[in-house]
Amino acid sequence: MSTTPVADGGVMSIPADLIPILDSWKNPVVVGHVRPDADCFGSMLAMAMTWPAEGGPAKVSLPPGSESRRLWFMTEWAGAVVAEPGDFAAADGIVVVDTAKAPRCNVDASIKETWSNGKPIINIDHHNSNTMFGAINYVDHDAGSACELVYRVIREAGRDIDPIVASLLYAGIHSDTIGFSLPTTRSSALRAAAALVDCGARVAEIGERLCRALSESEFNLERIIYDNTKLVADGRLAYSTASYTEITEAGCSAADIDDQVSIPRSLVGIDMGILLTEGKPGRTRLNLRGEKGLDVLSFALSLGGGGHHEAAGAIIDESVDEAVDQVIPKALAYLESQGR
Ligand SMILES: [Mn+2]
Predict the structure, then answer these.
(1) How many angstroms is it from 146 CA to the middle of ligand 1?
(2) With contact defined as beta carbons under 8 Å apart, do 166 and 160 qualify?
(3) What are the tens digits of pLDDT across the range 230-288?
(4) Do residues 296 and 249 touch, judged by C-beta distance below 8 A?
């Protein structure tokens, strides 16, 4: 059933069997990655709305801990129904979006080992580190977002795009390209966004909610991350940190860590930006960003993580201070090895 798509007209074509199989499923469940971001919510919810189950909406896997204060409006717009563990057993197939590898799938802890048992998986993603774990894989590394790929699939399938689906997809494209500002902003992303606006995407409201809607707690966390930012290696590396205590005292939790790596990253002239956040005591998440074409994916992979060439991440089972001591010297050595 596996298909190798080929480039066609500038974008990768959809595997021929993807849409017929999707259309044949009566009870799909849609899965995204742990700590879902706007691209993950948007691609999951748009899939679930466009390929509903028989007699009701398709179920989306958003186990406890998936709630993001800033992004939960997307699930409310979609009227999403959250999958229970039993829904996986009843599913005839599973759609996984925006997720590089099966262990990163956001499923309830009680079914962590069994959720995909024997079910065909359609894997729609844009991560360079995608392991092609699906029966059908539509993995386009050149796409700026998973939402752009879901948009292509919906279009190719000839299904309607109502203003809610349009808004969800637009939000994901906007967010994963950081407001159409990253090198991943290809013309196909802009064309998809334009078409979604024509379908009724709520551009201004999404801009407001994604870019200008910080709670006071999130603002306080940003203040801490600004304050903790350090510029080292003659300005080639900027990094910042938030310890578990700082995160919780700001009134935030691990679910509020989203794209705050853009704070150290915003310094001019850097090659790499890193954010280290201790969402749980003794467990530190790294967000890595490469500038001027620096590939941070191979660095992330060397730390057991994954992602995209210019945006990647990893988890270190250490406190944030320990993680800084371990990671920053390795990051400096990595920069050297890349001739930076
Ligand atoms: Mn994405």
Answers:
(1) 5
(2) no
(3) 999 999 999 999 999 999 999 999 989 989 999 999 999 999 999 999 999 999 999 99
(4) no
Angle 163-176/146-157 helices, nearest 10 degrees? 150
Q: Ligand 1 centre and the CA of 211: distance in Å?
A: 17
DSSP line for 279-315: EETTEEEEEEEE-TT---HHHHHHTT-EE-SSEEEEE
Q: Confirm if 28 and 95 have CB atoms less than 8 A apart.
A: yes
Give all domains of the chain, ordered by start, each with its CATH number: 7-210 (3.90.1640.10), 216-337 (3.10.310.30)
- For residue 6, pLDDT beyond 60: no
SS3 letters across 16-38: CCHHHHHHHCCCEEEECECCCCH
Span from the CA of 39 to the centroid of ligand 1 (angstroms): 5
What average pLDDT score do residues 139-160 get? 97
Residue whose entry in the numeric block shows the structure tokens 């290696």: 233
What's the CA-to-centroid distance between 233 and ligand 1, angstroms? 30
Query: If you measure from the C-alpha of residue 203 to the centroid of ligand 1, how many angstroms do you get, rounded to a whole number?
Result: 19
Q: What's the CA-to-centroid distance between 319 and ligand 1, angstroms?
A: 27
The tokens for 303 are: 């730390």
